[in-house]
Fold these 2 entries.
Entry 1:
Amino acid sequence: MRRRNFSRVPDTLQAVARFLATEPQRCDPEPGVCVGRPENAPPRDTTFAALLATAPQFLAYLLSFLVVAIMWVNHHHLLHAARHADAGLLWSNNNLLFWMSLVPFVTAYMGNNYHDPRAVALYGAILFLCSIAFSILRASITRHHREDPSLVAYHRRALRKNIFSALLYAASIPIAFRDVRISFFIFAFVALSYFLPERKLAED
């Protein structure tokens, strides 16, 4: 498969994932219950106070949009560093896309249960798996540049950063059972640390 055609497919899929991560769920007032609204249900409260009550759900989707958008940008630049689409690259990319497809689910769950450490820990676990999958994808692409020591050294440095981020996500899982606010800080910190795309790959 030509690299140009290959790069368009995951870019499209990640754009869809980014849209799904911001698509609101229809939720009943009870936390954690997301179902279709009955036709004969009484009208809901539309006051400003009711709007403020949805702030946790909005912030959860805002965080996920930031995480997925930043990962999509870096993924876009990373794939352009691929020399060809071999089996290892294709499957490592599919692995990343699978874990990213679970982000909308854990976003809705955490948004409706933001005080529950289990919901926050599950969100951290999915981000941890996304980070590991991204590291595997980078390792697959690094093998394409064995003849270029400078690029290999660059990818190894970036891979260390990826692994460090994965460790932070892993730490957020048990930390959630002590204080969910620290886990939220970890999620935001890791996302912001990747806000700027990889300069070397962007220039190439």
Entry 2:
Amino acid sequence: MALSANIKSELEKICGKNDVMDQDFVKTAYSQTMIYNNPVYPDVVVLPETKEEVSAVLRLANANKITVTPRAGGTAGPICVSDGGIIIDMSKMDKFLDFDEGNMVFTVEAGITVYNVVQELRKRGYDLPLKGWYAVPQWLEPGQPDMAQWIIGPLDWK
């Protein structure tokens, strides 16, 4: 089921015309991830740049009972719960916002890459306790800390 022209127009008002895409080649590109290869096609892809835009997209989708799936790097899967709906590509929201050194907590936007987080932390003399390929979290490896430890685990000094 394709979204109505009215919904697309509302999304364009929220995110801008260039950040709302429904061309077939875009939907095909977003239909799979590196890991999950059963294509599932969205009706539209939006690329918000602010939390206000994300909120507005979610309000519009909720009011119209449209499925929404967030996406960052596309390295995990599956993409959509079902064919259709909106994919919110978070890649434009890629900022390292804050680092509370006293509590060893940092705040980032949803689209930041692990690589960029590591680079920001290294500027401050810290590193993440990751091993191997950054896209494979430690909690997937046998004998490693659980997901909560991976997310909030201790930062290591260089």
